[in-house]
Amino acid sequence: MNVNKKQNLIRIIASVLIVLVVAGIWFIKNNSEKDGAANPDFELEATALDLDQLKSYGLPIVIDFGSDSCNSCKEMAPVLEELNTELQGKAIVKFVDVSKYPSAAEGLPIAFIPTQLFFDKNGNPFVPSDPQAMGMKLYPSNITKKHAFTVHGGGMTKEQFMNVLSEMGIEE
């Protein structure tokens, strides 16, 4: 009878360990996805854009179109990297190198680089209180004629980005 108790105890301990291992794996997997580490949508550099997918996260979005060969773009690169890191879970900050991935900018109002597009947390084009003061231009859709894009052309500092994001309602 003593042997049966030991065997039952070993079975119980083995079962508990298996459950703990499975729960641990599930916990690690889910937490790494929540912080964006395993999700390419939250990485800075993009080779293509799925705006509908990005908008589905319910976060403000900034997409910078530039090139590694553009001097103003090179100056902005550290700012974009910093914003992408600091704002994980609060905003989506993307960079598209249009010299390497020109198709990612097709159909978008990108006349020169760097150019940034802004969308609010509801997935709508950001509507600044004073577009002219912020150096932004609002573009309508060619089909619906409704506001489709809010664009800033040229380089931006971290302070300028944060001012825009603050007006977009980002929680710091």
Kindly describe this structure.
By secondary structure, the chain is of the alpha/beta class. 37% of the residues lie in helices and 18% in strands. A six-stranded mixed β-sheet has the order 1-3-2-4-6-5, covered by helices on one side. The protein is elongated, with a radius of gyration of 23 Å. About 3% of the residues have low confidence.
List the helices and strands and how they pair.
Blueprint: H1 2-34, E1 45-46, H2 51-55, E2 61-66, H3 71-86, E3 92-97, E4 115-119, E5 136-140, E6 147-153, H4 158-167
Parallel strand pairs: 1-3, 2-3
Antiparallel strand pairs: 2-4, 4-6, 5-6
Question: Helix amount, in percent?
Answer: 25-40%
Main sheet attributes: strand count, strand direction, barrel closure: 6 strands, mixed
Kindly report the average pLDDT value. Answer: 88
- Number of E strands: 6
Oligomeric organization of the protein chains: single chain
Radius of gyration, Cα only, in angstroms?
23 Å
Which series of helices and strands comes N to C?
HEHEHEEEEH
What is the number of helices? 4
Lateral strand order in the biggest sheet? 1-3-2-4-6-5
Poorly predicted sequence stretches spanning 5 or more consecutive residues: 32-36
Features:
single chain, 172 residues, six-stranded mixed sheet
Compact summary:
With about 170 residues, this protein is α/β, with parallel strands linked by helices. The chain has helices at about 1-35, 50-55, 70-85, 160-165, and strands at about 45, 60-65, 90-95, 115-120, 135-140, 145-155.
